[in-house]
Amino acid sequence: MSRDMALPFGAAVALVVVLLDRALGLGILSALLTLLQLVMTPVGWVVALATPAAAALGAWKWLVYLLLVIAGGYGFRAAGQAMTGNAPFYRDMTLAVAVGYVFAAVVAIAVAYTYSISFSTAGGMPDSYFFFRLAIHGLAAAVVAAILFRQLGMWIGTPGSRKLFRQMPGTAAFGIFIILCYAIAAIFAAWIAPYGQEEVLAKANIIPLVSAEMGGDPGFPLGTDQIGRDIYSRLIYGAQNTVGIAFVTTILAFFLGVTGGFLAAVLQGWTDQVLSRLVDVLMAIPALIFSLLLITAAASLFKGSSLTVAMIVIIAVIDSTRVFRLARAVGMNIVVMDYIEAAKLRGERMSYLIFREVLPNAYAPLLAEFGLRFCFVFLTIAALSFLGLGIQPPLADWGTMVKDLGQFVNYAAFLPQYAMLPLLPAGAIALLTVAVNFVVDWMLHRSSGLKE
Amino acid sequence: MTDRDVLLEVRGLKLEGRSDETWTPIVNGVDLTLHKGEVLGLIGESGAGKSTVGLASMGFCRDGVRIAGGSVNFDGIDLVNASAATKRSLLGKRIAYVAQSAAASFNPAHKLIDQHTEAPVQHGVKSRAESEKDAIELYRKLRLPNPEEIGFRYPHQVSGGQLQRAMTAMAMSCRPDLIIFDEPTTALDVTTQIEVLASIRDIVDQFDTAAIYITHDLAVVAQMADRIKVLLKGDEVEEADTRTMLSAPKEDYTKSLWAVRSFQRPQKPAVQTGATSVIAVKNVTAAYGKTPVLFDVSFDIHEGRTVAVVGESGSGKSTTARCITGLLPPREGHIEFEGTALPLDYRKRSKDQLRQAQMIYQMADTALNPRKTIGELIGRPVEFYLGLRGREKRKRVEELLEQIELEPSQYINRLPSELSGGQKQRIGIARALAAEPRFIICDEVTSALDQLVAEGILKLLAKLQDELRLSYMFITHDLATVRAISDEVVVMKDGRVVEQGQKDDMFTPPHHPYTDLLLASVPEMDPDWLTNLLAQRGADNIGDAAVDKMT
Question: Which UniProt keywords are present, listed alphabetically (chain B) (predicted)?
Answer without folding.
Answer: ATP-binding, Cell inner membrane, Cell membrane, Membrane, Nucleotide-binding, Translocase, Transport
